[in-house]
């Protein structure tokens, strides 16, 4: 079998991830409460902390997915139950990240929304299944993309949400705010809307032919359908935001004096 629940929780990647993120978040919460320019110090601390796992997952996922010959060779014959230690390590970090993120989301008013709770819960369950099922793991190959490479767009998103929470900070740094929004929109549309369906198609092709237990596949199938639809819903919001920005229409929310990018912000605020 794959890793047991105890082995997963005891794994160094999970322990270090959870402890490090909690300590850093607590320290930043205490610090940010002293900064008058921040309207929401707890949420802002969260958005700064998530940059660490986002950057790691994006870098490691990109390296595995695009450049690691050992990764490709390990899953050449079996992308469903194949094993590669660095891929397992990435999923362990992702699981630890989701445990921390769900906990912080539940105790932070500006983050505690039903869609965010569902998103973190489903992501954590998928990672848990991937680590514990099969003889040495389940769908670790696709974990490198869905839990790793796709997080490239989440790096500028963290900055976008910091500005979204803090109107005075956004007004003080309009150029940085705009650069983060443009980067997020471009990366999201390129990776999660244009490239994602090709990976999803391969995922379905491989899993349908795998003969893996339906109980395992059904959870991932349902999640893939739901998350894929969400990518295009968020993508639609981003495109609407871009159109408003280009045409100069003001959004009814009056976000920090920016030109009609409320839909883009709505996509960002639910993605994490």
The helix/strand series, from N terminus to C terminus, equals HHHHHHHHHHHHH
**Overall pLDDT:** 90
Q: How many alpha or pi helices?
A: 13
Envelope shape: globular
Uncertain segments = 252-263
Residue fraction in strands: under 5%
End-to-end separation in angstroms reads 31 Å
Return the structural class: mainly alpha
Rg from alpha-carbon coordinates: 19 Å
Region (Disordered): 253-272
Pfam family, one: TRAM_LAG1_CLN8
Domain TLC: 48-240
Membrane topology: Multi-pass membrane protein
Give a quick summary of the entry.
With 272 residues, the protein is an all-alpha fold.
Characterise the protein shown here:
By secondary structure, this protein is mostly helical. The chain has one domain. It is built from 13 helices and no strands. It has helices at residues 5-10, 12-32, 41-49, 51-67, 69-74, 85-107, 114-132, 140-146, 154-165, 167-172, 174-208, 214-247, 262-271. It is globular and about 55 Å long.
What's the topology here?
Layout lengths: L4 H6 L1 H21 L8 H9 L1 H17 L1 H6 L10 H23 L6 H19 L7 H7 L7 H12 L1 H6 L1 H35 L5 H34 L14 H10 L1
Helix pairs in contact: 2-3, 2-6, 3-9, 4-6, 4-9, 6-7, 6-8, 9-11, 9-13, 11-12, 12-13
Features:
globular, single chain, about 270 residues, mainly alpha
């Amino acid at each position: 079998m794959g890793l047991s629940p105890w082995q997963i929780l005891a794994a160094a990647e999970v322990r270090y991830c959870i402890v490090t993120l909690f300590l850093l978040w607590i320290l930043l919460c205490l610090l940010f409460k002293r900064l008058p320019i921040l309207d929401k110090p707890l949420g802002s601390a969260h958005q700064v902390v998530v940059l660490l796992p986002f950057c790691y997952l994006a870098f490691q996922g990109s390296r595995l997915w695009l450049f690691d010959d050992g990764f490709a060779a390990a899953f050449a014959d079996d992308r469903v139950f194949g094993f590669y230690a660095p891929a397992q390590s990435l999923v362990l970090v992702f699981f630890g990240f989701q445990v921390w993120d769900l906990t912080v989301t539940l105790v932070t008013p500006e983050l505690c929304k039903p869609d965010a709770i569902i998103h973190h819960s489903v992501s954590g369950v998928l990672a848990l299944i991937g680590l514990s099922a099969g003889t040495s793991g389940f769908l670790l190959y696709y974990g490198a993309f869905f839990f790793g490479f796709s997080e490239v767009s989440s790096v500028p998103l963290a900055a976008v949400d910091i500005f979204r929470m803090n109107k005075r900070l956004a007004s003080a740094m309009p150029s940085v705010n705009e650069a983060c929004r443009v980067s997020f929109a471009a990366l999201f549309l390129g990776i999660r809307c244009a490239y994602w369906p090709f990976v999803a198609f391969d995922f379905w092709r491989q899993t349908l032919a795998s003969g893996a237990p339906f109980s395992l596949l059904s959870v991932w199938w349902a999640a893939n359908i739901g998350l894929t639809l969400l990518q295009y819903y968020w993508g639609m919001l981003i495109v609407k935001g871009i159109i408003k920005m280009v045409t100069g229409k003001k959004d009814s929310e009056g976000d920090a004096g920016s030109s009609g990018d409320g839909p883009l912000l709505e996509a960002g605020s639910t993605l994490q």
